[in-house]
Input
Amino acid sequence: MESVAARRWASGLIAVGVAVLAVVFVAAFAIVRDPGGYYDEWVPSDGPEGPEASFDWSSSGLLVSFVDTSAIGDSVLERWVWDFGDGTESADAAPSHRFEEEGEYSVTLDVVDASGESSQAEATVGIETGGTASGEGTLGLNDLADNVTDVVEQSAKGGVVVVLVIGMFVVLTMIGGRLLRQGVRALRPIPDKISVKLRPKELELAAGERHSGVTPVPEAADEARPEATSDEEGRRVRAGV
Output
């Protein structure tokens, strides 16, 4: 009964160890296939993702047409605020504006989505009478600075999470390997002690090796043994024994 119970216990350890190692392998393989998806899942953003403002413009003489090209975030855009740089504004998504005179104007677009998140784009619009031009408005410096700050904070959080996940995988791998080894050892036990019997001559040689630090050659010792025996027999003959 004890043998059957021990084998079942060993088989259980092996099964648990293999299961733990399999879970670690599958999770690691999935992360390698889609690291970005797992990163976004582990390190979610602090709040809703807002829009990223941008626009295109084209001029014909003093008349300039504007088109909003902003990228929306988690919510749809609800409000547009255009500042044409000459003291006039518009709330249309794609307005047209006639300037009073040629020159360069700093035009900005503020967009606000349904969740209250906002973004601003800006461009320098140069126009001249009888000429044509075009360009685009890009994200403003304030928004760029905010984005950089958010990326740095997100990266710091992500670094901590990645270290913790790697540590968890290492610990689980060690646990799974330990369980597997224990199960295998239980099925095929290894004796705790190994008994070795040495003859007295070998013990004497071993003791001499420890004291002198020189490794003796067993064959030389065996060859010297007959000579010692011949000398002893000679002494016996001379003594008349």
